[in-house]
Amino acid sequence: MEPNLKVSFHTLGCKLNQAETELLSRQCAEAGYCVVSGDGADVYVLNTCTVTHIADRKSRHFLRLWRKRNPQALIIAAGCYAERAPQELSQAGADLVLGNEQKIRLIDVLKETSIPLARRSAEKFVADGVSRVRSFIKIQDGCNDACAYCIVPQVRGREHCLPVEDIVSEVKARVAAGYKEVVLTGTEIGDYEHNGMNLKHLVGQILAVTDVERLHLSSLRPQDISPELLSLWQDPCLCRHFHLALQSGSDAVLKCMRRHYSVDDYRQAVSLIRNTVSDAAITTDIMVGFPGESADESEESYRFCQETNFANIHVFSYSPRPGTVAAQMVGQVDDRLKKERSLRMLELARQSVRKFCQQFLGQSMMVLWEKEIAPGSGVYSGLSHNYIRVFTQSSEPLTNRVRSVRLTRLHKQELWGEVTGED
């Protein structure tokens, strides 16, 4: 395939997928391909997720939509859904299906593949460029746990970690390329270990030998939180945002899920964070309708989330995944009950966001401004050091700048403010 072809990427699912797509996109650009967005590309690459049936459905939707709009394009489905059920993606319109091990060879696949090029000269393309605001870097992949509901170990395999020196080099490269923030991601980054170096050592090394302006850790577990790890947050470069997956606020349900912590363990982790890291935002994942979850257990989960005062809650309904233990459990919860429990928890999530944001009104925070929300609008969107979504009006360009902003008003679940300081 000619190296100047136009390639479009789309990512579903977790930050690990985002990190992998970002890497593939850079590799394509370095190989001479033009990374673009919108219809009219020669090649479409979908990095899929299969954590829930909704993720599966989204993947099939994108493939069918691309096939309808771009009948002569090469459409590639890659990632976790491709690993689990490649035939389903072929039936949905994918020309090539690449599992997680195969997708790292994307450049070789493109070089070996031929597609019709009849429509190229007549199309208009919009190049993505490089945002150079936030870069996702994979430090670890795979999972050795066996949670009853989770298909990730089947599609990602057992845990393996990248060498410290490789990660540090990649952080330095992203900083040199102009990125202000680096996000360290993986399936279970709390399990990071390579040649005797754990997550604390890795983060400490990055802070010590790179010029990264903001460093953010993706999802952790309560058992990953320790005084030793939290001592790193004395460095202002570390974002004060902790995403701690909970899944359920009921000990009985956690046991059935095969999670390796109790509600009290989780409570202690939250307390340790809040006593150590000022202004910390703690967000979480909650699953509703796990097999056998009773009304009382659902209420336990709701009450625990209510008392914990999360900065936000990602709510999702249990989805049976083929080959998992939970898919065979008795007591599958009716879809109607799942929806009722989900809607109630989503309303609590909205209340939680507003309550968390309100406490910062009148204060000043450093914000990494990501983009102008519409060309010429002068309205910019960014994230504070503790990942509050902030908007401001500015006559000067703010994209990819870290500026102080005084938070003045709450609108829905977001804060507006006035820029008050220089970078």
Could you explain the architecture of this structure?
This protein has 423 residues and is of the alpha/beta class. The chain contains 13 helices and 21 strands. It has helices at 15-30, 53-69, 80-84, 86-91, 106-112, 152-156, 164-176, 199-209, 227-230, 251-257, 263-276, 295-308, 335-358; strands at 6-11, 34-37, 43-48, 74-79, 96-98, 126-127, 134-138, 140-141, 160-161, 181-185, 193-194, 197-198, 214-217, 241-243, 281-288, 312-317, 364-372, 379-384, 389-393, 401-411, 414-419. The strands form six sheets. It has a six-stranded mixed β-sheet, with helices on both faces. Strands 17-18-19-21-20 form a five-stranded mixed beta barrel. It has a three-stranded parallel β-sheet with strand order 7-10-13. The radius of gyration is 22 Å and the shape is globular. It starts with 5 loop residues before the first strand and ends with a strand.
Key attributes of the depicted protein:
4 domains, 34% helix, Transcription Regulator spoIIAA, Rossmann fold, alpha/beta, 6-stranded mixed β-sheet
Give the SSE layout.
Elements: E1 6-11, H1 15-30, E2 34-37, E3 43-48, H2 53-69, E4 74-79, H3 80-84, H4 86-91, E5 96-98, H5 106-112, E6 126-127, E7 134-138, E8 140-141, H6 152-156, E9 160-161, H7 164-176, E10 181-185, E11 193-194, E12 197-198, H8 199-209, E13 214-217, H9 227-230, E14 241-243, H10 251-257, H11 263-276, E15 281-288, H12 295-308, E16 312-317, H13 335-358, E17 364-372, E18 379-384, E19 389-393, E20 401-411, E21 414-419
Parallel strand pairs: 1-2, 1-3, 3-4, 4-5, 7-10, 10-13, 14-15, 15-16, 19-21
Antiparallel strand pairs: 2-6, 8-9, 11-12, 17-18, 17-20, 18-19, 20-21
